[in-house]
Amino acid sequence: MNHKQVLQEKVDNSKSSFESEFYQKLFKNPIIKNLPKHLKQFIVDQNYIAYSPMDHSVWRYVLRQNHRFLIDHAHDIYFEGLEKTGLKVEGIPSISEMNEILSKIGWAAVTVDGFIPPAAFMEFQAHRVLVIAADMRQIHHIEYTPSPDIIHEAAGHAPVIADPEYAEYLRRFGAIGAKAMSSKKDFELYEAIRKLSILKETPDADQDEINKAEKDVLYKQDNLGKPSEMALLSRLHWWTVEYGLIGTLKNQKIYGAGLLSSIGEAASCLSDKVKKIFYDISASNYAFDITTMQPHLFVTPDFSHLINVLEQFADTMAFRLGGKSGLEKAIESKNTATAEYSSGIQVSGIFSEIMYDNDQPVYLKTSGKSNLSFSDKELDGHGIDYHSDGYGSPIGRLTGSKKPLEEFLEKDLEQYNIIINKQTELTFESSVVVKGIVKDILRKDGKNILISFTDCTVFYKNNILFEPSWGIYDMAVGENIVSVFYGAADKDSYDQPSAVSKLRVTKINYNEKTKKLHSLYGQLRDYRKYKSDSSIFPSIWNEYKNHHSYDWLLGVELFEILTGEKIYPDMRDELKSWLIEKADKEKELYKLINDGIFLAENPNKYKSTWKT
Fold this sequence. Notes:
With about 600 residues, the chain is an alpha+beta fold. The chain is built from 25 helices and 17 strands.
């Protein structure tokens, strides 16, 4: 089985077959249908029926409380975006339904299993696909969770992309981020963060294990060494897409998804306790900590400013600079990377050595599996099976030539005896010499991109770089390296390990007592939806207070219904006293319960055009 078959098998196995109803609906969206295979392997079934009635109540509580606060403090696009993306307060959204609406603004959404690697996340974004973690936060993390969940992704990220300028910022960020050089330490930090987020959302997780995971994240954050391009870009993403403010240093509104989806941090972030800093490229110097609320936030005057800063940063990156600095970043990363010659040919592999002449790169080498591509598509016959032991090729102009080799016409090729089946000796200005019989010349878009030789020897000064016994020598053609970027040019053909993490989000198995509590939530949910018989409430109240008094949210929901319907006044008063007493005893619930009571008693105080 070759690498392409292996990748296809990974995709098929990760899906339980694309033939399911979920995937049939999902892949009707042309944006998702056209995603490359290496991204499709991250997509998981939302499994909508697995959400419990309590999950829907947590969603409802967060959105109602956020609406109450954000009506005055969120960017104006937020509520317009809630309408455009089809989000409703009463229940967790179906990704299929969201896609039907997102397609109207040129975007799509897929569900994934928790955190995915940053490069994959960025690439999805470049394809205008919103990545949504399918899982739902537990009730004890209702104010904030370090784990990505559907509240954060759907109710935080999705609404703001209704703004065309912001949507373009996200797309550009994804396209640039997908090319950012990354290090092994970056991936180790990603794995540590993923582990911590999973542990924190695992019921009855061992606290010592959580503490150990938190220390591991902090240690890896503090010991990244010189930050890679991806690490620096991740900071810009954090301070804008996740935790961004818009306006002036004296008057801001919220647009960052991490704030929009956190009823705890949204309320505190605008206070004077949180330092406000004007957003510019220096934000990349500010590391962040996912385990705590942020001590400072950055303010952009408008969304066009975000694009300007992003482009300013991109100008410092290897994919735009190429040359020596780009190749050195590729070697430092110790990851698969691609160097693109001025002819357009792309060499992908793990770069192991660069030779220099007068501080200019004149020869590059990769180790292990490598491939050659053009316009991000692998060249026929030049895959990792053929170039399995590494690849090397010169960079530069031939001695005495007035133009680059890639621009040679037939007469120029003849002048240097570059003729099929003829012996030639090519000497580069750098003193790299290629001597052999020309086997083939490959041209693309009017340029020579690859010349193959048999019986070939390549040497540089006293170093033999290739000898005839090694087989055919395929020489990439190009005067300069114009771009260097993370990953293979053609990832599906290269079979780059895109690392669908072995750490999986824990699926909760509820005990019988919890299932009974969920059934009570379900009865309240059905009542709101269908206005069923209100005679169910006394038995719900008795069951709840006698067997589930550890819970608080069901009590708030029942109080809201009794207050709004003006029924069972004695039960309502008893329930309110019970809730207030619980809030006084359990200080971590004080604000949550009292905010719930306040909103139940003041349902019309906070309104917007959003049809909740």
